């Protein structure tokens, strides 16, 4: 049930992947004024196929965010999220929503415009902006000096990542933020990073120079929701402090104000390691180093177990976010 408030805090959420919609849905239900800034560097699966064949920004993360903030009837949401079977040849593994975004992007000549139109059609409660109006290519530089290009290829090397950076996929111009993104960051009461893959969902947005600078310079509280599990080829052997160190190093400043850390253990043998094969073990804690990074640490049970998977409990996370942004009386 949705909660209505006299004061609606302006909360900007930056990221991508499957974790973001869980938080956005919880924020919507609690009556926040929401802006979602979504990565456009995905090049795998249905999104990757469409960005190559139709020359659009990858639609998958944008689709999931639209649905998480939508007031549409459940049947319409299910239809938008429907994914065609693997044996459907041409349509195999494409979701209907991705195809609709591709069609509207081609009609309007802009994925940004397509998302704004769909936001109205889907009765989206909030604003959804692709981080850039052009699709981006994500690059990773490893400890040995080698560089791999393409979000879907980065984890395959399974070496320590020194840094990531983005370039425009279709031209040599420097990546620019979508219209209204910087103003949304400036107007925010709170900026939330994650949950999501550190190197491939969160940092691609911040590596757009103007977005990274706006977040660092913002008056808003910057909150990082630390991942519960380490990820193969990205954050293997990482502590929670390692996640924050990477973010601060990429932005050149200790800009994270608060970190939300899950302290509840995942039951042994619970994870479906075939279905969720990219996740390895739980992120370990290093509260001393977190404090050295200059951030406040809020540790609690944010764990939700569902169908062999490990997720953040959206309601518990959002309750903590509101306590931060509205004060202890919330």
Automatic annotation (TrEMBL):
Transmembrane segments: none annotated. The keyword RNA-binding does not apply. NCBIfam families: CofD_related. Required for morphogenesis under gluconeogenic growth conditions. It comes from the Bacteria. SUPFAM superfamilies: CofD-like (SSF142338). One of its GO terms (biological process) is regulation of cell shape. It comes from Vagococcus elongatus. The keyword Chaperone does not apply. It is found in: Cytoplasm. InterPro entries: CofD, CofD-like_dom_sf, Gluconeogen_factor. GO terms for cellular component: cytoplasm. It holds the Pfam family CofD. GO terms for molecular function: LPPG:FO 2-phospho-L-lactate transferase activity. Gene3D superfamilies: CofD-like domains. The lineage of its organism: Bacteria, Bacillati, Bacillota, Bacilli, Lactobacillales. PANTHER family: GLUCONEOGENESIS FACTOR-RELATED, UNCHARACTERIZED PROTEIN YVCK-RELATED. This is Putative gluconeogenesis factor. Keywords: Cytoplasm. Belongs to the gluconeogenesis factor family.
């Amino acid at each position: 049930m949705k909660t209505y408030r006299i004061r609606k805090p302006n909360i900007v959420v930056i990221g991508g992947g499957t974790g973001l919609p869980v938080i956005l849905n919880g924020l919507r239900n609690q009556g926040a004024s929401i802006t979602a800034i979504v990565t456009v560097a995905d090049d795998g699966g249905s999104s990757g196929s469409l960005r190559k064949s139709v020359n659009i920004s990858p639609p998958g993360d944008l689709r999931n965010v639209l649905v998480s903030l939508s007031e549409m009837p459940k049947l319409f949401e299910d239809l938008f999220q429907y994914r065609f079977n693997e044996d459907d040849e041409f349509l195999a593994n494409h979701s209907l929503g991705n195809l609709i975004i591709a069609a509207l992007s081609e009609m309007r000549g802009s994925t940004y415009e397509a998302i704004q139109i769909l936001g109205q059609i889907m009765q989206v409660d909030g604003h959804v902006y692709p981080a850039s109006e052009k699709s981006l290519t994500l690059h990773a530089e490893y400890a040995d000096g080698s560089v791999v290009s393409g979000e879907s290829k980065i984890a395959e090397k399974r070496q320590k990542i020194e840094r990531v950076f983005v370039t425009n996929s279709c031209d040599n111009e420097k990546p620019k933020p979508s219209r209204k993104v910087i103003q949304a960051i400036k107007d925010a009461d709170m900026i939330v990073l994650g949950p999501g893959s550190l190197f491939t969902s969160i940092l691609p947005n911040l590596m757009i120079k103007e977005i990274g600078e706006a977040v660092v310079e913002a008056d808003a509280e910057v909150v990082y929701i630390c991942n519960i599990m380490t990820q193969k080829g990205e954050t293997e052997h990482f502590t929670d402090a390692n996640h924050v160190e990477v973010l601060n190093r990429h932005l050149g400043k200790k800009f994270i104000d608060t970190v939300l850390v899950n302290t509840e253990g995942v039951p042994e043998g619970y994870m479906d390691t075939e279905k969720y094969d990219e996740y390895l073990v739980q992120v370990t804690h290093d509260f001393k180093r977190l404090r050295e990074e200059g951030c406040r640490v809020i540790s609690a049970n944010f764990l939700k177990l569902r169908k062999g998977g490990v997720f953040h409990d959206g309601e518990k996370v959002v309750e903590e976010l509101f306590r931060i942004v509205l004060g202890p009386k919330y």
